[in-house]
Amino acid sequence: MKTARSLFFLIFAFHCTLCFPQNPPPENQLKLAGAIADYFKLDRENIHLHLNKTAYLTNEQIWFKGYIIEKKFKPTLNTSNVFISLIDSNGEKVATQLYYAEGNLFEGRIKLNKSIPSGKYYLQVYTNFMNNFSEDESSAYEISILNIDDKNYSTNKVSSQSIAVGFFPEGGILLDGASNTVGVKITDCLGNGIAVKNAEITDAKGNLITTFSTDQFGYGKFEIYSANSESYTAMIFANGIKILKTLPLPSASGITFSIDNYIFPDKTVVKIRTNAKTIPQIKNKNYTLVLQQNEATTFAGFSFKENETEHKLIIPSSELNSGINTVYLLDEKYHKIAERLIFKPLSPANDAPLAIASVRSDSIKISGVSKIPFGNFSISVVPAETDSENNLKTIQAGLVFDNYLDKPISNSFYYLIDFTRKKHYELDNFLLSQKSKYQWDAIIGNAPQAKFESDAGLGVKGIVNTDDSKGKIFKINMNSLGLGLNEFTSLNDKREFQFEHLLAIDSTKIYFVAKDKNGKELDHKIVYQLQNNNRKFIKSFIPEKQCSENLVIEKKTMPLPKFDNAIMLDSINVIAKKNKLVNQNRLGNIMARGFKISEKDANSYSGVLQFIARNGFIVSQVDGSVSITTNRMNAATGFATTTTLSQNKRRITTTEIYNTRPKTNQAAVFLDDMYIQNLDFLQDYSLSLVDEIYLNRNGNDISMYGTSGIIKIYTKKSYGIYNNNISNKSPVLIVKNGFQRFLPYENPKYDNMRDEGFQKFGTIDWKPFVTTDENGNFNFSIPNFYQKSVKIIIEGMSADGEMISEIRTLNIP
Fold first, then answer.
1. Given pLDDT bands bounded at 50, 70 and 90, which one contains residue 74?
2. ∠ CA(490), CA(494), CA(500), 5° rounding?
3. Is 446 within the bounds of a domain?
């Protein structure tokens, strides 16, 4: 709130030189800025899925990497539980699974049922915290599934006569006696854009007023200068069909506006227009233009003078946030007159050239360089002529456009790759026909409240059914060898107990034992319930209805890859047994850097603490007390802070990470998956006792301690601390709908990697985690399937939210 209001004062002071010299900002505008900041105060998580492809056969698996941001491009570390639902074309849920996010990343797979029918499906991604908002903050991804037992497949085509034409006046109305900009959208009833040339706009007498064209996606615009209160007609030739479409009738009075922020890169020009009939009603009244993205808001006040029918504002583009901004035109009571979406270009991060470093009989090593240092990427590799990426949604589409638009964008990759003024103009034409996800009346109404919690792991709530006649219960022990659990808690006055923040994998077993103060097991009945594992999203996903009339269903045989019954593991990732990391795939270790401790390592370091200190953590030993910290968190406030200085050096903004759980800059240390609170014993702990160490400076432990940074130490078998004598006679909880187990990527075994079926729908490789170094360099290897060329799709982001999306075709020598 404080940041937003400070920003308001700076911007308002600037704009008042245009409108109200030396006047302080009105009190009502201060309240308005506060209401907007309150509405966007809670973290609004947005999630992007990078799918390894978008068309799947029923004997394949859907592989994905998830990227989570807070809408204001802050790291969001509250939620660890991410749900993904597979939904059919009728909006019916096929399945929902739970995945574990480490920091703001997660990965996984969905195994398809071989009996699932062919058709269009959707993946909806959500968290429980998203239920706090009236807007739908979930993400949806369209995919195709082809059942391998089908002899032929249905495809939809529409009649050439099935054409939809929409007109979108920029200021919301056509205004009599004023110049009006009108957006156009021309599509078939499946939503595919139609390009037209030289469409005509005529007046009621048939006189030609202007012409327009639409681009390849069906968007365009035209201007009617000094419109009259008469009907206008568009005459369009599309697909060989002549279409006559009547425009909305001009309004006799009102206010409209137009915006241009693509001709001049450093400024946004706004023209607010009215007509002579309206001036007597509105002259000298105060109006406000609001440029808004989340809580960042710019106000520009103005008024119409006698006989003034156009007011022009010039706003520095530096006052806009990168991405989608909403512009509202408000009357003196701050009621919305009109609104408009505009786009401020992103800082370009694309352009990651690739080169083949080496070619072997079984593998191809590829190197690349990116503008993003210390980035985390995911990479899909498919045949160059593939049809399995037709509905690809880029990371920018998901996290820059869709999270602000009422309906998802198509073709974002076209607009953003090699961004030019021409593409900015075309994107602006698209935005003329779009609406914001956020309604003005809701924004200045009641701010959302955090009624739904951020899930960080699963919970168990239980009760002991006893009168305590058989012994005084001192503690409840929860244990699981498979999960590395051996925790204790006490009962409350109602004989209830609760465990929280469990990384419980689906189908694993957890045991509960009541013990007295001497550690003796008590024979009491314990009733328990698993929590947070079956969260529902309260907003139903409803697929957009498409036309049924003029729809032609064609049956055709499609070439599909031929498979063996076996599965071939990606041989490129197989490591010699003596160096293989056996715990890398355990939940909590997936994003960490793993080390297999050799005899040489043990002899090179004085102990575990020195090894940890040499690999990025801060180790402190004072009077026999050990602490391990990161420098990621401000220990005094519990907030991470980033400070940015705008180009004109007038605005300094400090961003605070809102977190619902208490935080410390202490690292979480686990020994054989057991949380260690007192680290003093590590002072003399020899590295020779250790088999593997996993270090994640960016990870956040989901336990009640809310630590920052994760260290996991696995001892050699002869030194392990697991208790193998845990009683299996105690009550057992079989985890249902728990976290999906992480598994390494499996490539299907194809009979023929050169036939048409493989070229259209086959998969070459999937790399969910590829990192860049401090200079942006990265490399990876793929299987050599003896292709002449391959298509490589790269998506990813840096720690501060800078994104990359690349599609490259690489020729293989």
1. low
2. 45
3. no
Determine contact, residues 503/588, Cβ cutoff 8 Å: yes
- Number of domains into which the chain is organized: 4
Verify that 727 and 623 share a domain, yes or no.
yes
Q: Which residues contact 542 (CB under 8 A, 6 or more apart)?
A: 91
pLDDT digits (tens, 9 = 90+) for 613-671: 988 889 988 877 889 988 644 333 333 332 232 333 222 222 232 333 444 578 888 88
Q: How many CA atoms lie within 13 A of 236 on its CB side?
A: 27
Residues 6+ apart with CB under 8 A from 263: 269, 421
Q: Which neighbouring-strand residues pair with 507?
A: none
CATH code for position 201 = 2.60.40
494 CB contacts (<8 Å, ≥6 apart)?
Answer: 463
Residue for token digits 């599965």?
A: 567
φ/ψ of residue 554, rounded to 5? -105, 130
pLDDT given at position 607: 86
Helix ranges, 521-632 (H): 599-604, 608-614
d(Cα 309, Cα 272) in Å, to the nearest integer?
A: 8
- Other CB atoms within a 10 A radius of the CB of residue 27 amount to 8
Residue that finishes a domain, picked among 488, 507, 531: 531
Read off the DSSP letter of residue 401: I
Other C-beta atoms lying within 10 Å of the C-beta of residue 694: 23
Query: Global pTM?
Result: 0.81
Mode of pairing for the β-strands spanning 625-629 and 668-671: unpaired
Which tokens is 283 given?
């002259």
Domain that residue 692 falls in: 588-734
Identify which of 480, 505, 503 has the alpha carbon closest to the alpha carbon of residue 740: 505
6: Cβ–Cβ under 8 A, 6 or more apart, which residues? none
**Does the structure show a pLDDT above 80 at 736?**
yes
- Residues 194, 186: Cα–Cα separation, whole Å: 6
Q: Are residues 497 and 527 in the same domain?
A: yes
The DSSP code for 742 is P
Specify whether the CB–CB gap between 478 and 485 falls below 8 A. Answer: yes
Residues 512 and 644 in one domain: no
CA quadruple 574, 578, 581, 582: dihedral positive or negative? positive
The average confidence (pLDDT) of the chain is 83
Look at residue 638 and tell me if it is in a domain: yes
Angstrom distance (rounded) from CA 346 to CA 323:
6
Of residues 60, 239, 207, the one with CA closest to residue 145? 60
Q: How many CA atoms lie within 13 A of 297 on its CB side?
A: 30
Please write the tens of the pLDDT for every residue from 100-147: 998 889 999 999 999 999 999 999 999 999 999 999 999 999 999 999
> Considering only CA atoms, which of 321, 317, 203, 323 is closest in space to residue 262?
317
- Amino acid identity of residue 666, one-letter, is Q
Final residue of a structural domain among 211, 246, 281: 246
Note the pLDDT tens digit of each residue in 402-431.
999 999 998 888 888 888 999 999 999 999
557 located within any domain: no
Q: Is residue 633 domain-shared with residue 669, that is, in the same domain?
A: yes
* Token digits of residue 666: 């202490």
**592 and 730 part of one domain:** yes
- Locate 347 and state its tokens: 């800082």
| pLDDT at 751 exceeding the cut of 80 | yes
How confident is the model over 508-541, as pLDDT tens digits? 888 898 888 888 888 788 888 999 999 999 998 9
C-alpha angle 132/135/139, rounded to 5°?
95
What whole-number distance in Å separates Cα of residue 726 and Cα of residue 743?
Answer: 28
